[in-house]
Amino acid sequence: MNWMEWQPRQAQKFQESLKNQPTKPPKPNFGGFVGSTFRQNEKIQVRLARAGISIAVDKNTGTALLIFSESEAQTVQNVADVYKPFDIELTDKQRRELAADLEYYDSLLRRREC
After folding, report:
1. What are the pLDDT digits (tens) for 9-66?
2. pLDDT at position 33, please?
3. Is residue 55 classed exposed, middle or buried when 0-12, 13-18 and 19+ CB atoms within 10 A define those classes?
4. Which of 32, 64, 86, 89 could make an S-S bridge to 94, C-beta 3.0–4.6 Å?
């Protein structure tokens, strides 16, 4: 036997044992946040509906924006789809964007009141 042809036996055993491994069980589906995400979406949608604010979703990026008037909705109609708050299912990213924008909007309103 030439030393260049030598292969360790342990590696062969290891590779054979990998072939005989049972399949991995699927990851458990964790549904704990589904309800809370739904409630968070609903809270945002209720706040938007009460304020008369619509949601625009950019057609290219999926970014969610607040729309305050019909003229704003018409302005963005070529680049975004406009929805009433309860007419769209928000992704987590969109929910976070809208929540941040809504908090900023609320802070401006509070400053104006002072």
Report:
1. 555 555 555 555 555 554 544 444 445 667 778 888 898 999 899 999 999 999 999 9
2. 44
3. buried
4. 64
Sequence ranges of the domains in the chain: 37-114
Q: Which residues contact 37 (CB under 8 A, 6 or more apart)?
A: 92, 95
Q: Quick check: 80 and 58 in contact, CB under 8 A?
A: yes
Cα 60 to Cα 57: distance, rounded to the nearest angstrom: 9
Beta strands (DSSP E) in 42-103 are 54-58, 64-67, 80-83
Sequence-distant contacts of 23-31: CB under 8 A, at least 24 apart: none
Q: What is the pLDDT of residue 84?
A: 93
Reading the block at residue 45, the tokens are 């949608």
What is the Cα Rg of the chain in Å?
27
Tokens matching residue 65: 């924006």
Coil, helix or strand at residue 80 = strand
- 64 beta partners: 57
CB of 93 within 8 A of CB of 62? yes
